[in-house]
């Protein structure tokens, strides 16, 4: 389950990484454009993570019903959830589109960086509903213990994005004009549309889950809504950390925000690679909880800890081997590369810590323990991350300070989850 989920999970960061790599190697305004992509990606990630929590909520509920042998009772839940979440996405487009300039000024963007950010966002935001639709369908498949079809969809979207990026950014002589940063945005939107269409096709062809929402609401919509609200608060806390990271990096200067863009997008890629095992934890923990098989649930957590540490170390080692080629892949600006190489080792060193935090995030989502997840992330952001980043900023550590704050943030996120899980389920397994 984990390996197809891992491949499916990297689709969104690959869209942003592809944009960053191709834009960062343009002949004109590459560094400015790369900085703009970094700012917009942070804001879009916030929107996607806030509303994309439908995947975890749907997966949790469906997997628990699957474990209890009663999936039929929640068959109409995904369509209702998709309708609500895509309606909200249209409302967000209507609000943020005309306010894009004001939004990115909050990230300390100005001049050409601000102009490019607005241009890029006002195209890419139209892929937002397609992304949320795809995420909700992925959650449905995961609840049904199927990660294979999401993998096929994600591969198709990623390949389409790479091909379209080259065609639209650089142009094809006599066929497509070079559209630069706008071309990257158009490529992403089309790739997201392709993924949404494939998601609808596979769900309708391979399952008996409907896509047309009908009233009355499923009884589980109340629990679904409470899960979403808790995850919403949690994700706001998560994005407070990302906001401060991006705004401080922008404040330090163009080369710093460009270097931060490369580093944070590679961090996102690592996070989504690890998300394959987080998804397996989400899928299986929900099913085992529904079946009240606490011993197997505890064994699952032990395996996930081992896999998480191994995958985190593996990502760190691969990153170390390709340390300098990775930088050159995204930029040829020496000032940008110098700042990137100065801090990338911190991103690699924190990978095992990130792995454990992300995996147990997934496990707790599968268990439906959204309130505890909310409390842990609010604490780790407001009590750990924010004070540290302001302190390191006062010390003028610049990007060092940002990624030191992220490291302690991940420790504060992961450790309480592991302790809480083992304290709860060791007792239940003994009494089972």
Automatic annotation (TrEMBL):
Sorted alphabetically, the keyword list is: Antiport, Cell membrane, Ion transport, Membrane, Transmembrane, Transmembrane helix, Transport
Regions crossing the membrane: 30-51, 81-100, 120-141, 148-172, 184-204, 224-245, 257-284, 304-323, 343-360, 372-391, 397-419
Gene Ontology CC: one annotated term? plasma membrane
- The organism's place on the tree of life at top rank: Bacteria
Q: Pfam families from the xrefs?
A: MatE
Kindly give the membrane topology term recorded for this protein. Answer: Multi-pass membrane protein
What InterPro entries does the entry give? DinF-like, MATE_fam, MATE_MdtK, MdtK-like
Its localization reads: Cell membrane
User: What are the GO BP annotations of this UniProt entry?
Assistant: monoatomic ion transport
> GO: which molecular function terms?
antiporter activity; xenobiotic transmembrane transporter activity
UniProt similarity note:
Belongs to the multi antimicrobial extrusion (MATE) (TC 2.A.66.1) family.
- PANTHER family on file: FMN_FAD EXPORTER YEEO-RELATED, MULTIDRUG RESISTANCE PROTEIN NORM-RELATED
> What is the protein's name according to its record?
Multidrug-efflux transporter
Organism the protein comes from: Winogradskyella pacifica
């Amino acid at each position: 389950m984990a390996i197809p989920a891992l491949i499916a999970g990297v689709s969104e960061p690959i869209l942003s990484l592809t944009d960053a790599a191709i834009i960062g190697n343009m002949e004109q305004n590459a560094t400015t454009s790369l900085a703009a992509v970094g700012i917009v990606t942070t804001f879009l990630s916030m929107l996607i993570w806030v509303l994309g929590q439908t995947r975890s909520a749907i997966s949790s509920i469906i997997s628990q019903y699957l474990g209890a042998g009663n999936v039929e009772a929640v068959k109409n839940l995904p369509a209702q959830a998709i309708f609500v979440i895509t309606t909200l996405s249209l409302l967000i487009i209507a609000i943020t589109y005309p306010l894009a300039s004001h939004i990115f000024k909050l990230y300390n963007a100005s001049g050409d960086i601000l102009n490019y950010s607005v241009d890029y966002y006002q195209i890419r935001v139209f892929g937002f509903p397609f992304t949320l639709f795809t995420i909700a369908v992925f959650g449905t498949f995961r609840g049904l213990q199927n990660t294979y079809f999401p993998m096929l969809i994600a591969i198709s979207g990623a390949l389409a994005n790479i091909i379209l990026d080259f065609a639209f950014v650089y142009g094809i002589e006599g066929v497509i004009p070079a559209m630069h940063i706008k071309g990257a945005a158009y490529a992403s939107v089309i790739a997201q549309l392709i993924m949404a269409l494939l998601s609808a096709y596979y769900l309708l062809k391979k399952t008996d889950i409907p896509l047309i929402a009908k009233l009355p609401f499923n009884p589980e919509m109340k629990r679904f809504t409470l899960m979403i609200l808790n995850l919403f608060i949690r994700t706001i806390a998560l994005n407070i950390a990302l906001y401060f990271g991006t705004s401080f990096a922008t404040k330090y200067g163009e080369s710093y925000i460009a270097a931060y863009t490369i580093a944070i997008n590679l961090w996102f890629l690592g996070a989504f690679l690890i998300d394959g095992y987080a998804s397996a934890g989400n899928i299986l923990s929900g099913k085992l909880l529904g079946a009240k098989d606490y011993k197997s649930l505890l064994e699952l957590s032990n395996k996930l800890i081992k896999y998480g540490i191994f995958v985190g170390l593996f990502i760190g080692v691969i990153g170390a081997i390709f340390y300098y080629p990775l930088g050159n892949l995204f930029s040829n600006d020496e000032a940008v590369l110098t700042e990137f190489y100065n801090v990338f080792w911190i991103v690699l060193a924190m990978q095992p810590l990130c792995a454990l935090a992300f995996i147990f995030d997934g496990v707790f989502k599968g268990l439906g323990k959204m309130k505890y997840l909310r409390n842990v992330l609010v604490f780790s952001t407001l009590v750990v991350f924010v004070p540290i980043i302001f302190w390191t900023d006062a010390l003028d550590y610049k990007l060092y300070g940002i990624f030191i704050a992220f490291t302690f943030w991940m420790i504060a996120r992961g450790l309480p989850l592991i302790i809480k899980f083992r304290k709860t389920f060791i007792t239940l397994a003994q009494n089972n």
